[in-house]
Amino acid sequence: MIFGVILAGGIGSRMGNVEKPKQFLTVGEKPIIIHTIEKFYVNDSFEKLIVLCPAQWVSHTKNLVKKYLKDEDRIVVIEGGSTRNETIMNSIRYIEENYTLDDDTIIVTHDSVRPFVTYRIIEDNIRYALEYGACDTVIPATDTIVESDDSNIIASVPDRSKMYQGQTPQSFKAKKLKDMYNALTEEEKEILTDAAKIFVIKGEPVYLVEGEVFNIKITYPYDLRVAETLIEGDK
Where along the sequence does the record put site: Positions ribitol 5-phosphate for the nucleophilic attack (predicted)? Predict the structure, then answer.
């Protein structure tokens, strides 16, 4: 079975002084999180869409789903964890408790504040996860990347042709992801930035899915203005 996992656990601190997490801000007359869920909802491959958010926002998110999507059967809203990866583990726990978690169970994990993901990107993630076990959506780096050890002086300038910018979705065979995460040391867990790094730490291949430049993550106030423009352009 294949599950969509929408990660809405962030509080949006980089958005500035706003009254709610950024995923609940309105863009194009709808909350950002609803735009994102809709992109997954139209894909019939998903057995269930699991939306994970902070405990105090679960009820609000359920109300949004009821208002805009009117489907409380195919979409479930549950509490996320203290970190991104713990949130993903909560989704796997839900699958284990309510369905069968086996070697072929796939999760397609996606940031709730990336509402411009395409049907093609989602389909490619499903296909690559089924075939290879793990994949990450990326775009080639267009700017020169510099590395600094102390935030003051350049330590190295990597070959840009080998550099990519990570996006989401990131998709995995859920049981394998869970088993590898549980096998990590506490020190390894502390250096995690996302779920794909779990596979990398354990020496497992993560295949690249071609993303899109417009598959932006809404993080800063400027991104809201860009998002409004993109949505207007889709009308």
Answer: 160, 217
14 is in an annotated binding site: no
Residue 84 annotated as binding site: yes
Q: How far is CA 26 from CA 22, 29, 77, in A?
A: 9, 6, 19
Any known ligand binding at 45? no
**Domain total of the chain:** 1
79 is in an annotated binding site: no
Amino acid residing at 5: V
* Domain that includes residue 57, residue range: 2-234
User: Residue 151: which CATH number?
Assistant: 3.90.550.10
Q: Is the overall model pTM greater than 0.90, yes or no?
A: yes
- Which pLDDT tens digit goes with each residue over 207-235? 999 999 999 999 888 899 999 898 877 66
Determine whether the annotation assigns residue 204 to a binding site: no
Q: Is 8 annotated as a binding residue?
A: yes
- 7 in a labelled binding site: yes
